[in-house]
From TrEMBL:
The lineage of its organism: Bacteria, Pseudomonadati, Pseudomonadota, Alphaproteobacteria, Hyphomicrobiales. It is found in: Cell membrane. This is Peptide/nickel transport system permease protein. InterPro entries: BP-dependent_transpt_permease, MetI-like, MetI-like_sf, OppC_N. Keywords: Cell membrane, Membrane, Transmembrane, Transmembrane helix, Transport. Its main location: membrane. The keyword Transmembrane applies. Belongs to the binding-protein-dependent transport system permease family. It comes from Bradyrhizobium lablabi.
């Protein structure tokens, strides 16, 4: 009698726990937002252009042939040199030089860094202020809500650039010419932030009025959570979609506002120019034949604003549940 053959028992291993990094990455790839992004070639191009601008601004000190903010690297003998591909062009000035001998490409890279810093910080400041006031107005209601919303309504009657000019003028009247370049940058951030907080406040207030009547807020109140915890931990995450759209669109508006202030002479000084300052300087030489001094900073500013606006339009449509 032969021995019975016992089939080999396959060991069943425990399912592997997926890593948190792989999990969120896979969810991001499979999300509707990423699918909508892949379907729009224009949005992908805009994202690449925006990322390229940010990367060039961050690496400006490595990419630029000179530091346009360092007077020791500037030579007046190199002033008003045309772009490299023209008959009178000289290396290494690819886009030519301005009246101070600054390489236009280097000035654009460094100026773009300042414009992006002012725009990003202005959006962060206005977003933080608007979100805080919107949460307070929507959650508490009553007289607090009426006061905040009436202030917002009054500010909406004035253009954002006028608010920024007013704040800028008040600061300059108090401190005069004692402000250095970094202090002027901080003034621009505050001026732009005070110009755009209303959109955040009104949007967050509307979302909070809807969310605060739901069961999870009542349960949080029942267990005794304080109001700031309920607003920040439970109510605010449900309003991130509209906030993200507003922040993206306001980034372009903040950069335009900074460029407008600098063009009007109320922004960054000539010693540390932003894109708006470069356009103002180049505008003085437009009719004398040195067109490249104003043309290339203007093109860079227009391309940056267009790419950010395209991203904002796509994000608004992608996060709109009615369009899904």
């Amino acid at each position: 009698m032969s021995d019975a053959v016992v089939p080999h028992k396959t060991e069943v291993s425990a399912p592997r726990a997926r890593s948190s990094s792989g999990g969120w990455f896979k969810r991001a790839i499979e999300s509707d937002l990423f699918y909508s992004f892949r379907r729009s070639r224009l949005t992908m191009v805009a994202a690449v252009v925006t990322a390229l601008f940010f990367l060039l601004a961050i690496l400006a000190s490595l990419v630029a042939v000179q530091n346009p903010f360092d007077p020791a690297q500037l030579q007046l003998m190199n002033s008003r040199i045309p772009p490299l591909w023209t008959a009178d062009g000289q290396s290494p000035f690819l886009l030519g030089t301005d009246e101070q001998g600054r390489d236009v490409l280097s000035a654009i890279l460094y100026g773009m860094r300042i414009s992006l810093v002012v725009g990003v910080l202005g959006v962060v400041f206005s977003g933080a202020l608007g979100i805080m006031l919107g949460l307070i107005a929507g959650y508490f209601g009553g007289a607090v809500d009426s006061l905040i919303m009436r202030i917002a309504d009054v500010q909406l009657t004035f253009p954002a650039i006028l608010i920024a000019l007013l704040v800028n003028g008040v600061v300059k009247s108090v401190f005069g010419n004692r402000l250095d370049a970094m202090s002027m940058l901080a003034v621009l951030v505050v001026a732009i932030g005070l110009s755009f907080w209303v959109q955040y406040a009104r949007t967050v207030r509307g979302s909070v009025l809807v969310e605060k009547n739901k069961d999870y807020v009542a349960a949080a109140q029942l267990i005794g959570l304080p109001a700031p915890v309920i607003m920040l931990r439970h109510v605010l995450p449900n309003t991130t979609g509209p906030i993200l759209v507003i922040a993206t669109i306001n980034l372009a508006l903040a950069i335009i506002t900074e460029a407008t202030l600098s063009f009007l002479g109320s922004g960054m000084p000539d010693t540390m120019p932003s894109l708006g300052t470069l356009i103002r300087i180049g505008n003085n030489y437009l009719f004398s034949g040195e067109w490249w001094i104003v043309a290339f900073p203007g093109i860079a500013l227009a391309a940056l604003i267009l790419s950010i606006n395209l991203l904002g339009d796509w994000l608004r449509d992608a996060l709109n549940p009615k369009l899904r």
